[in-house]
Write a structure and sequence with these properties.
alpha/beta, 336 residues, six-stranded mixed β-sheet, single chain, 10 helices
Length: 336
């Protein structure tokens, strides 16, 4: 999948040497948004991670390919993960586990839309077990997860825990892989990639993009649009990216000064913003592509806002990563 020159005498691995299970339909499409490019006066391209095949698609599948392979290797039969009530990652974990005949338990914060809509409806259809915890405190959520895992172990089962968004170094390798897929596609279609823009919540996708580009030795900028309330997002991304590089035996560290993040969370995580809602309408009415209120709408709204401020260089080719999340459109009330 990729060749990395040896540096500093280290024995470097290739991504192909890291165990994974194929769950998605790859490569996902990469093409120019011609109507939007003309309207916005930009060279806009889109990487359709929402068309990755499992469930209703999304970026989390690439991470799960590595994480669930690790779980299977360790002979774990029950997967536990966590997130917000309408977590795309949580729903897709349940879908992936159905393919692999694994049990799934979701421990979700009882915040936002908790009725049977959006991703919770999909989890119900999948038959995924859901536990709600009525708190915003991560430590209380962790205590609930620990309690469930101990009970499973007492019952003779072997659980495997995946953190929010699958954002751990092993999961991040999914987007290191995506970088090389994207570079291959761009080369085939004679597209020069100058700038990549993505939503950044738990930080995993941005970390993987940065690490992959570092390994590729390409001169490509990555801007993350912060859609969460994480005050230490830059540090999180650095730790995840360096952790992924370490898994591949790469000895060059990424530093926090290299991380480009712009804040467009608005009133808060999963709360619709005016810019995000306008971006959803614009992209749908220009390209027939659906974005969501939580991630991609805010991220694309942020991209357009930054463009108006002169953030991007003239004639840059900008690739927007569509991370999925469409089920949120059917859960969150918003004025269109």
């Amino acid at each position: 999948m990729m060749n990395i020159n040896k540096r500093g005498g280290n024995n470097l691995k290739t991504l192909d040497s890291v165990r994974k299970i194929n769950l998605g339909c790859y490569p996902t499409p990469l093409y120019q948004m011609k109507n939007l490019s003309e309207k916005a006066g930009l060279n806009l391209f889109i990487k359709r991670e929402d068309l990755s095949g499992l469930g209703l698609g999304g970026n989390k599948i690439r991470k799960l390919e590595y994480l669930l392979a690790d779980a299977k290797q360790k002979k774990c039969g029950t997967i536990i993960t966590t997130g917000a009530a309408q977590s795309n990652h949580a729903m897709l974990t349940g879908a992936a586990c159905r393919v692999l005949n694994l049990e799934t338990i979701l421990v979700l914060k009882k915040r936002g839309v908790t009725s049977l809509k959006g991703n919770l409806l999909l989890s119900k259809i999948l038959g995924t077990e859901v536990h709600f915890v009525d708190t915003d405190d991560k430590e209380i959520v962790k205590e609930e997860i620990d309690s469930i895992m101990k009970q499973l172990e007492f019952n003779g089962k072997k659980p495997y825990f995946i953190p929010t968004g699958g954002s751990v170094p092993l999961g991040v390798l999914g987007y290191v892989s995506a970088v090389f897929e994207m570079i291959t596609q761009a080369g085939r279609d004679a597209i020069k990639i100058d700038h990549v823009v993505c939503a950044s919540g738990s930080g995993g996708i941005q970390a993987g993009l940065i690490a992959g580009i570092k390994l590729s030795s390409k001169n490509i900028k990555v801007t993350g649009i912060n859609i969460s309330s994480n005050k230490e997002l830059s540090k999180t991304i650095v730790d995840l990216a360096n952790g992924a590089l370490k898994l591949l035996g790469f000895d060059r560290n990424i530093v926090e000064e290299e991380i480009m993040i712009e804040d467009y969370v608005g009133e808060g995580y999963a709360i619709p913003s005016t810019e995000g809602t306008e971006a959803i309408k614009l992209v749908a009415r220009s390209e027939g592509i659906m974005l969501d209120h939580v991630y991609t709408g805010k991220a694309f709204g942020g991209l357009l806002s930054l463009a108006k401020k002169g953030y991007f260089d003239k004639d840059e080719n900008i690739i927007f990563i569509h991370t999925g999340g469409v089920p949120a459109l059917f859960a969150i009330d918003s004025e269109f």
